[in-house]
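Progress note, project year one: complex with flavin mononucleotide.
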Amino acid sequence: MTMHLQPDGFRDAMSRFATGVTVISTLDEDGAPRGITVNSFGSLSLDPPLVQWNIIKTSYSYPVFHRANRFAVNILAADQETVSRNFCKAIDRFATVGIETGMEGLPLISGCAAWIECCVTDEFPGGDHAIFIGQVERCRVFDRLPLIVWRRIYFDMDKVHRGDACSKASASSDG
Ligand SMILES: Cc1cc2nc3c(=O)[nH]c(=O)nc-3n(C[C@H](O)[C@H](O)[C@H](O)COP(=O)(O)O)c2cc1C
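Model obtained:
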């Protein structure tokens, strides 16, 4: 079906691109852990190893990432739907997860499928979002299946393997 461009139509079309789910984490100026659920994450370059993601500039977290020199990509595992939901809420997000410490004190979320630790190389404007580029300094992977989101529905890949149901994401995905 052809859709003429309307904001809801664009969001609906983008939501049909299935992605993994990450929490991008960093430390703020006071050394407190900060993080946001993101599915706009992707790989950018192999040599040098670069990744990219973007954030809406009106978010409370944007100024924190704008000032940060580093960030970590926490690739959520199949059973971490609650983590994805919590890292959109106005709560003490890191009180809801186990934390491990990465390079330069970066907060890493326990139980993820992978951690990718980066130093920020660039920030570019992109409409109402800002695009961050990071050079990968360290990766760690774990033997866990990923959490997937498609049309704002979460798919626990462990359950998909067993043919169980999926559940609707409450927060909108704007990445
Ligand atoms: C699955 C999913 C993916 C998301 N991806 C992005 C994204 O790529 N960029 C973004 O700015 N917000 C994204 N969001 C929304 C943010 O997580 C949400 O607006 C943010 O946590 C608000 O935090 P704040 O307290 O910094 O304003 C996503 C939300 C969900 C549920």
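The CA atoms of residues 120 and 134 lie 4 Å apart.
The longest strand covers residues 114-126.
No further modelling is planned for this target in the current period.
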